[in-house]
Amino acid sequence: MNFAVWMGIAGLAATAVAAFPAVATADDDLPSRRLTDHVVIVSIDGLRPDAIGKFRMRTLQRLMREGSYTLNAQTILPSKTLPSHTSMLTGVDADVHGITWNSDETDAHGHVDVPTVFGIAKSAGYETAAFFSKTKFHHLETPETLDYVKSPHGGFFTGRYTWRRTVGYVEDYLESDAKAPNLMFVHIGEPDYAGHLYGWMSVVYHQAVLEADRAVAEIIDEANDRFGGGNYTLIVTADHGGHGRDHGSSDPRDTTIPWIVWGQGVQAGVQLPAIRTMDTAATALWILGVTTPPDWIGKAVTGPFPGALMATTE
Question: Average of pLDDT values for 145-160?
Answer without folding.
Answer: 84
